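Inverse folding, one chain.
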C-alpha cells in the first residue's frame, strides 16, 4: 500500500507513545496479555496497540489467531454471559439480540475526517445540506476521540489481524481491528480472513495496514443499563474515518457496518480512497458468474444496488430457466483493477455474507438458506420453541403450531401486528459454505468483469432493464441511482432517495472527484465493462410487483449477457438507453407479463425525473460535478423532450 504523508505522521505519534512508555509498553502498563505474544507482533502493530491500550485502559489484551479453539472459547464465554445462545436445530448456529437502540448503521454519526473539507464532500450550492458524505474537521473529531479515554475499563481488548481479500493477493489489503466486543470478533472471523498468517505477511510485505479501532463505549462499572447483555452507547456513537491516516475509529455501536470494520468502513470508505490513489475501484457491488450451458462460456457481472435492494439475492440466484449455471463470487463489495491487458478483474474482499433475513427463504434464496445452516450468527431474528430461527418470509417453512419468540424476546403470534424479526435482522455466515460459491472466489487474480449493473427500488416509471449508450452515459446513470429507503440504516418511511452508484452512505471522498475517477478509466488499454440499469421493483396500479424477480431475474441477465456478446438484433434505442426489443427476453412459462407496461417510459415521469436529477446533482455536487456528466444529463434531457411521446406510457 502506498504510504501517505499522514501515515508517516501517525507512525511518529505512535513511536512517541512507544518511546515515552517503553518500559510500560513491555508490560503494556500492567495490562496483562490474556492470550498471544505481544512481541511477536510486527513493531508497527505493537505501537498501534500500545497507543490505544494506554488510552482505552482495558483490563487485558487478547491477541487473536483465528483458530477454531479461539472461537470455541469466545462462544463459550458469550453463552455463559447470556449474550448468545445456540439454535439447537442446526449445527453451531447462534442467535444474538442487540439492545433495541442499536439495530442498523447510523449514517448521521458516520464521518470522514480530512483537513480539507472539500477532499471529503463536494461544494454544495449555498444553503443546501449535503447528503453525499459527511465531513468532520480534525478538531471536532478530536472531541469525539476523547470518549475513548478509559472506554474499555474492565473489558478485554481483542487484537484482530485480518486480510480483506485472499491473504497474499495483489488485490488484497491488511487490517488490524482492536475491539472490546467479542461478538464483533466472532463476526469478523466470518466476514474477513482472520489469521496469524497476517503477521507474517505484514513482516514480509510493506508492513502497511489499516488501523481499525472499535469500542462499544461501555466501560465498567457501566453507566447505562445494559439491555440483552449488549453494552452500547447510542448517545455517543461515532463512526470516524481518517482516510489520510488509513485509520478508522468507531465508538458506541456493535451493529454490522458500524463495528465489523473490515466491511463498509474499510472495504468501501477507506479502500475507496486507496483505490482513487492507486487507480482501481472499491464498489458496493456483488460479483457473480453465469455459465451458458450450451456454449460453456462464463460471463462475470458486477451489480451495484443500494442496501437491502437485492444484491445477496442476485449474487446467488437460482435460475428459473435451464440455460445458465450461476455461481457466486461475492454479495456486497467488489475490489476491481485493470490488468496489464486492460481487462478489469474483481475480487470479493470479504469472506462471509452479512445478509438481510426478512424475505429470505427456500423459494426466494435457497442458496442463502443453505449457506446459513451451520457456523452462522443470527442477529435480531425471532426464534421458534424448537430452536430454529424465524423471520418474515419463513411462514410457509415453519411449523404453524410452534411457539415463536420475537426479536425483542416477547411471545409472538402469527398475524399479530408488528414484526417477529427486526427488518434489518441479519445472518452472518461463511461464504465458503454457499452451495454455489464459485471455485475461483478466492482466486488471487480475481475474475474478469464484463458488465456493471445499477439498480434500486423504483416503484414507478423505470423499466425492467436498459443499457447505457457509452461509458460516460453509464457513469451518469450510476450517478442518478435512486431507491426507496430501506431498514439498512436509520431512515423511516418509503421515500425515494438518491443513492448515487449505490454508494451514498459509503463514499470515502468528494463525489465529484469520485465521478472524475470513474470517467478517467476510459483510456487505453482499458476494456470497459458495459453498463446497465435494472429495476425488479416496478409496481402496477394495484401496487403489485410487475416482475416476479428473484430466480426469474436470470432472464434479464441473459439479455445483458447477449448484449455483452454483441448481439445487436435484440436492442432498440430509446431516449434513456437501449431497451430490449419486444420478445427478446425469454418469458417462457412466466404467465401473464405486461411487456408494454414493464418497459413503458411515461413522458411526464422521465421529464420530471431528468429535471430532478439535474437539480440534485447541481445542488449536491456543484462545481465538482464533471462537465462530461453535465453534458450527458443535458443530452438525455433533450432526447427525452424530443423523442419521447406523451402517449408512450401513462
Ligand atoms: P445489503 O446487505 O443491505 O447490502 O442488501 P442486499 O442488496 O444484499 O439485498 P438483499 O438481496 O438482501 O435483499 C433485500 C430484500 O429485498 C430482501 O427482503 C429480499 O427478499 C428482497 N428482494 C431481493 N431481490 C428481489 C427481487 O428480485 N424482487 C423482489 N420483489 N424483492 C427482492
Ligand atoms: C448495507 O447496509 O449495505 C449492508 C449492511 O451490507 S452493513 O454491513 O450494516 O452496512
Ligand atoms: Mn450492503
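Residues assigned per position:
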Amino acid at each position: 500500500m502506498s504510504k501517505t504523508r499522514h501515515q508517516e505522521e501517525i507512525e511518529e505519534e505512535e513511536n512517541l507513545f512507544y518511546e515515552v512508555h517503553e518500559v510500560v509498553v513491555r508490560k503494556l502498563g500492567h495490562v496483562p496479555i490474556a492470550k498471544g505474544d505481544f512481541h511477536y507482533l510486527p513493531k508497527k502493530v505493537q505501537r498501534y496497540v500500545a497507543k490505544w491500550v494506554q488510552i482505552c485502559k482495558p483490563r487485558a489484551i487478547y491477541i487473536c489467531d483465528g483458530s477454531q479453539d479461539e472461537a470455541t472459547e469466545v462462544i463459550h464465554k458469550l453463552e455463559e454471559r447470556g449474550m448468545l445462545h445456540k439454535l439447537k436445530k442446526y449445527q453451531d448456529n447462534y442467535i444474538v439480540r442487540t439492545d433495541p437502540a442499536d439495530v442498523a448503521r447510523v449514517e448521521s454519526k458516520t464521518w470522514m475526517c480530512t483537513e480539507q473539507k472539500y477532499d471529503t464532500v463536494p461544494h454544495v450550492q449555498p444553503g443546501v445540506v449535503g447528503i453525499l458524505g459527511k465531513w468532520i474537521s480534525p478538531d471536532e473529531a478530536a472531541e469525539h476521540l476523547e470518549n475513548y479515554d478509559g472506554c474499555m475499563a474492565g473489558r478485554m481488548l481483542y487484537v484482530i489481524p485480518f486480510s480483506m481479500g485472499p491473504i497474499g493477493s495483489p488485490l488484497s489489503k491488511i487490517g488490524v481491528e482492536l475491539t472490546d466486543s467479542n461478538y464483533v470478533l466472532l463476526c469478523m472471523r466470518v466476514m474477513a480472513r482472520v489469521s496469524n498468517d497476517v503477521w507474517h505477511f505484514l513482516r514480509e510485505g510493506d508492513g502497511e495496514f489499516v488501523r481499525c479501532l472499535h469500542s462499544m463505549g461501555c466501560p465498567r462499572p457501566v453507566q447505562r443499563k445494559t439491555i440483552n447483555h449488549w453494552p452500547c452507547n447510542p448517545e455517543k456513537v461515532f463512526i470516524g474515518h481518517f482516510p489520510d491516516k488509513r485509520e478508522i475509529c468507531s465508538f458506541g455501536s456493535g451493529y454490522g457496518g458500524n463495528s465489523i470494520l473490515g466491511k463498509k468502513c474499510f472495504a468501501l470508505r477507506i479502500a475507496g480512497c486507496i483505490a482513487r490513489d492507486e487507480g482501481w475501484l472499491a464498489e458496493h457491488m456483488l460479483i457473480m458468474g453465469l455459465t451458458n450451458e450450451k456454449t460453456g462460456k462464463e460471463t462475470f457481472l458486477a451489480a451495484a444496488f443500494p442496501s437491502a435492494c437485492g444484491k445477496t439475492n442476485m449474487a446467488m440466484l437460482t435460475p428459473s430457466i435451464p440455460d445458465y449455471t450461476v455461481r457466486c463470487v461475492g454479495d456486497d463489495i467488489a475490489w476491481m483493477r485493470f490488468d496489464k491487458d486492460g481487462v478489469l478483474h474483481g475480487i470479493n474482499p470479504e469472506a462471509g455474507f452479512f445478509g438481510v433475513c426478512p424475505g429470505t427463504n427456500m423459494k426466494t434464496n435457497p442458496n442463502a438458506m443453505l449457506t446459513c445452516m451451520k457456523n452462522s450468527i443470527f442477529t435480531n431474528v425471532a426464534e421458534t420453541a424448537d430452536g430454529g430461527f424465524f423471520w418474515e418470509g419463513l411462514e410457509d417453512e415453519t411449523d404453524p403450531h410452534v411457539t415463536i419468540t420475537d426479536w425483542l424476546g416477547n411471545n409472538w403470534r402469527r398475524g399479530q401486528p408488528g414484526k417477529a424479526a427486526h427488518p434489518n435482522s441479519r445472518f452472518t455466515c461463511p461464504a465458503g459454505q454457499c452451495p454455489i460459491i464459485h471455485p475461483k472466489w478466492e482466486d488471487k487474480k480475481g475474475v474478469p468483469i464484463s458488465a456493471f449493473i445499477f439498480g434500486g427500488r423504483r416503484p414507478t416509471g423505470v423499466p425492467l432493464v436498459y443499457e447505457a449508450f457509452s461509458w460516460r452515459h453509464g457513469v451518469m446513470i450510476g450517478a442518478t441511482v435512486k431507491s426507496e429507503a430501506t431498514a439498512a440504516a436509520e431512515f423511516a418511511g418509503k421515500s425515494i432517495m438518491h443513492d448515487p452508484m449505490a454508494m451514498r452512505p459509503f463514499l470515502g471522498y468528494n463525489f465529484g472527484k469520485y465521478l472524475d475517477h470513474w470517467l478517467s478509466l476510459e483510456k487505453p488499454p482499458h476494456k470497459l465493462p458495459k453498463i446497465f440499469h435494472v429495476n425488479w421493483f416496478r409496481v402496477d396500479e394495484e401496487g403489485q410487483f410487475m416482475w416476479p424477480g428473484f430466480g426469474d431475474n436470470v432472464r434479464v441477465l441473459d439479455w445483458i449477457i447477449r448484449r455483452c456478446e454483441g448481439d445487436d438484433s435484440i436492442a432498440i434505442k430509446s431516449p434513456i438507453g437501449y431497451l430490449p426489443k419486444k420478445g427478446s427476453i425469454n418469458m417462457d412459462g412466466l404467465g401473464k407479463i405486461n411487456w408494454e407496461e414493464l418497459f413503458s417510459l411515461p413522458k411526464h415521469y422521465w421529464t420530471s425525473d431528468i429535471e430532478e436529477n439535474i437539480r440534485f446533482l447541481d445542488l449536491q455536487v456543484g462545481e465538482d460535478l464533471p462537465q462530461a456528466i453535465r453534458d450527458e444529463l443535458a443530452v438525455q434531457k433533450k432526447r427525452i423532450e424530443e423523442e419521447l411521446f406523451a402517449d408512450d406510457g401513462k
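The two ends are 53 Å apart (CA to CA). Residues 105, 256-257, 263-264, 307, 332, 354, 488 surround sulfopyruvate (ligand 2) (CB under 6 Å).
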